[in-house]
Design brief:
Length: about 260
């Protein structure tokens, strides 16, 4: 049984002391492909370094809404560098994570929107899908996606458990990726939301080192914990963990063209 963790951050400083042993553990746990996702210029550089070092690791490049500089000119310089990274490296399989976040940042909404739209256009130019981060910005996220065609669609990463978001995202052709929060005891609508997503659009992720699933909530997360998310989805949908692993693996290969 092979798993595909389609979103983690192995470059995070939380792994600085034991990254090599974590990566060994990842492979031993059955994760045979994974994406160490970029979220900033430096994160995109570090993610690519990991992808080039390990055959089973891929990466994405982008500036997340939480990593946008306050100076707009600096942002455009960063995005130019992101474009070059994505254009010149085959192990970059998407532009992301990109999107909107009004939970942490309410003062720069216009700049977040500009960066989001610019990176959608970048993805279209480079023939890549996108990876979307959205938090407390559902309406604006959907509006931008409706008004700016995304040629290769993409993934709502660690998708909020919001019925309207799921409905609209599926209508627009996007994949839905679930992480640790669906295992939390206070995620009362997780089963309903997971069942809304068709088999051919569902993905698994850990978002490591964040959002550890039960029974490790509150501890550092690792891609080796992907099985706990798969087990939860299997229980919700009344299928085997092996089937969850198989369909999410094939879906990830399809959207990222791996």
């Amino acid at each position: 049984m092979d798993f595909f963790d389609n979103h983690a951050h192995l470059d995070d400083e939380k792994y600085n002391e034991d990254r090599e042993s974590v990566i060994i553990k990842i492979k031993e746990s059955g994760v045979s492909k994974m994406i160490s996702a970029g979220y900033s210029l430096q994160g995109s550089i570090d993610g690519l370094e990991l992808a080039n070092k390990y055959d089973f690791i891929y990466t994405t490049s982008g500036i997340s809404p939480n990593d946008i500089p306050q100076d707009e000119e600096e942002l455009w310089i960063m995005l130019g560098k992101i474009r070059n990274i994505a254009k010149e490296n085959k192990k970059v399989v998407a532009i992301g994570e990109i999107g909107l976040d009004y939970y942490w940042n309410k003062e720069n909404k216009d700049l977040q929107k500009k960066a989001f739209i610019h990176q959608i256009k970048m993805a279209n130019e480079l023939d890549l899908p996108i990876v979307i981060h959205t938090r407390e910005a559902v309406a604006d996220t959907i509006e931008i996606l409706k008004n700016n065609n995304v040629n290769n669609k993409g993934v709502f990463h660690c998708c909020p458990l919001n019925r309207e978001l799921i409905k609209e995202a599926l209508k627009l052709g996007f994949y839905i990726s679930f992480a640790g929060p669906i295992t939390f005891k206070n995620s009362k609508n997780a089963e309903e939301i997971v069942k809304m997503v068709p088999e051919e659009r569902i993905l698994l992720e850990t978002d490591s080192p964040y959002l550890s699933p039960e029974p490790f909530r509150g501890k550092r997360n690792e891609p080796s914990n992907i099985k706990y998310i798969a087990q939860k989805i299997a229980g919700f949908r009344g299928i085997s963990v092996e089937k969850v692993a198989d369909i999410t693996y094939r879906n990830a290969e399809r959207i990222y063209k791996i």
